[in-house]
Amino acid sequence: MDSTELTTSESVSKKKGKTKNLKRKPKPDKAPVEKMDQAEVEVTDEKPVSGACFPPTFSMSDIKNKQRRHSMFLKIKEQKRKLKLELKKKKKKERKALGDKAPPKEVPKTIENQRIYDETTVSPEDEEVAFDEGTDEFAAYFNRLTNPKVLITTSDRPRGRTVRFCDHLATVIPHAHVYYRRGLALKRVIPQCVSRGFTYLIVINEDRKVPNGLVLCHLPDGPTAHFKLSSVRLRKEMKRKGKSPTEHVPEVILNNFSTRLGHSIGRLFAALFPHDPQFVGRQVATFHNQRDFIFFRFHRYIFKNEKRVGIQELGPRFTLKLRSLQKGTFDSKFGEYEWVHKRHEMDSCRRKFHL
Amino acid sequence: MAAKSQICSIWLGSETGILKGVSLSKKQAFNFCEMSCLSRDQEVCVMAWGDSHESEVLVGSVNGTVKTFSTDKGIFTATRECGDPSQGRFTGLSVTDSSLITCVESGLLKVWKEGCTDTVEVNVGNGICRMQQNPSQRHRVATGGKENPLKVWDLERPDKPIFTAKNVAHDWLDMRVPVWVKDIGFIPDSDKIVTCTGHHQVRVYDPSTSQRRPVMEAQFGEYPLTALSLPASQDTVVVGNTHGEIGILDLRKGLVRGCLKGLAGAVRGLQCHPSLPLVASCGLDRFLRVHSLEDRSLQHKVYLKSRLNCVLLSSRELESSSPDVSGDVEEVKAEEDEVWDTMETVTEKTKKRAAQTSETVVNGVDGKKKRKLVKTNVK
């Protein structure tokens, strides 16, 4: 037992000298170790001691008593936390002391800023892509030849939240009409939509009363995007929501659609809203792409003074994830897909993003 | 332009009407087109080699013109009107000795003799999806399309097809099986013809026998097949579908030998190298991909900015652009090896990790993978 006590005191002295070392091996803090804890001290000491009675490959999970193991675990966790806080405080102090000379703060590593470079990233001066986009299916909208007119429908026999979600979506998108599906096939709905001048068909799919899919079909000649729909929050379920939105045309914000595929998807969303937002309404619809998930938010803003802006969420809010982009109008059997999300092939790297 | 076009070994036609050349040895891609006068009605539908030396590329566009591109000079040398856009886009283009064969969607097959204006016209039926020429007997062509079965025509006697396929027997519900031939290939050294359909079947016909129904039928996937190509090695066929799946099928029993991975969108063009075990594919995802048929690995991947409609491989080696540059390529390889030698730090790290998990085998595989990934980054 003598030898073990010796080692503990050594480790304590070390702690006082260097706190950095400690970070790796958290050990009991108090120098005079209580008799109850002696066994534990031996346990935590990882140094191979000549007279130690534990095998060298000891870990905490080897303690067989569950209560003891648990208390031990909690203790170590608490110690780690304390150490971390101390270190943080110290660093802050150092930074303050250094003042302007302080080294720049390290940027945390995220999978987004470590993103693998995508060769399809669109540069604004690329002639060929500009031509391709200038003559694609949305060219008529962006040349201000057409005005959007949107039909919103659901899968057959919608229940509960899906119906309300459609209604909310219709308040967000101007010139949107919600129709009951009436068991009609989409391939028969599409020609009727085209003949009545609709430019978009939105179909919300529902599974067990929960909306879970969204098909966005640009008319008259495509493309069609299929999204997974998740985290739908209706207006009623939101805290601190604003008064219900007005009928003004909202502004649209599209964030982070950088690749060629992302551009196509961004244009698909942009063409959903009419030109010339009515700034009187002070409403903004945002499609924010982050890690291939597209977050939709609908806000009202107000300029409090020159610097500060207040925003108020109006709802609904939901998240989309692209499953496929198909050329032409909806035809899941014979249509040609421009992009299909293949989970096992494409999701092998977490730092690769497609939008 | 001439220097650029001479090193290119793969030619591609895009939906924006641009002819693209790719040199895999130099890892470069070029556009052979005036960027100022682009238009969608120049969209490339079909491409073919103009002569046996592969010095001319024939490009058929949507607006009914066939342009001749000289790979030596790097410019378009001739343009001729071969039909009007009202009859549909081109579905096939090929060359026999001194004459040009074109076929459009409405089923009008024309033979344009060199120098004279009158043409031989054959009506091969509506809804044509593909016209292919028999590479060994160059006056024979095969056509097929939607509700239009496979027909083989002898252009010296164009009044009647020499072979018309018969639809397969009714299915288990006693319903007629719809016909939709999407692509055709002639199996070399035999009379057999292989077709792929919009209902994901691959069928082999044998005109030399009296049987007009397919002698072999196989299925691949569940989406319409769009393109087909026959590799140099016998008994296999490579097919691609609208979901970006490419399969290698065995023609003896009709079993899937393997799939090629890495595609994101529909396959529009597929061509195997005439001698090497390589296959090039292009499609709506705007990438050209070259796969090896032996280990089915992705060899090259090039982003070409427009949706691609067709691909044309030259019969020389893809890696070396011309015989005198082959030394150069080896040098590049040596340089690459040096680069890999200097990257020891990475491998050490992975080794450490491997030591922790005591799985050295996996580590080796990982290292290889990284290497390949870097190699395939052409740009």
Automatic annotation (TrEMBL), chain A:
Domain of life, source organism: Eukaryota
Gene3D superfamilies assigned to the protein according to its UniProt record, in alphabetical order: Probable brix-domain ribosomal biogenesis protein
Biased composition (Polar residues): 1-11
Keywords associated with the record: Ribosome biogenesis, rRNA processing
Brix domain ranges (all copies): 148-331
Main location per the UniProt record: nucleus
Family matches, as SMART domains: Brix
One Pfam family named in its UniProt record: Brix
Localization per record: Nucleus, Nucleolus
Region called Disordered, residue ranges: 1-55
Bias (Basic residues): 14-27
GO molecular function: rRNA primary transcript binding
Ranges of compositional bias, category Basic and acidic residues: 28-48
Alphabetical GO biological process terms: maturation of 5.8S rRNA; maturation of LSU-rRNA
Function description: May be required for ribosome biogenesis.
Listed name of the protein: Ribosome production factor 1
Lineage, highest ranks first: Eukaryota, Metazoa, Chordata, Craniata, Vertebrata
From TrEMBL, chain B:
Lineage: Eukaryota, Metazoa, Chordata, Craniata, Vertebrata
Gene3D superfamilies in alphabetical order: YVTN repeat-like/Quinoprotein amine dehydrogenase
Entry keyword annotation includes Manganese: no
Pfam (any one): WD40
Disordered: annotated segments: 345-379
Keyword field contains Phosphoprotein: yes
Highest rank taxon of the organism: Eukaryota
Protein name: WD repeat-containing protein 74
Subunit text: Isoform 1 interacts (through WDR repeats) with NVL; the interaction is independent of RNA or pre-60S ribosome particles. Isoform 2 does not interact with NVL. Interacts with MTREX; the interaction dissociation in a late stage of rRNA synthesis is required for appropriate maturation of pre-60S particles and depends on the ATPase activity of NVL.
InterPro entries according to UniProt: WD40/YVTN_repeat-like_dom_sf (IPR015943), WD40_repeat_dom_sf (IPR036322), WD40_rpt (IPR001680), WDR74/Nsa1 (IPR037379)
Places the protein is found: Nucleus, Nucleolus
GO cellular component, one term: nucleolus
Segments of skewed composition (Basic residues): 368-379
GO BP: ribosomal large subunit biogenesis; RNA metabolic process
Alphabetical keyword list: Methylation, Nucleus, Phosphoprotein, Repeat, WD repeat
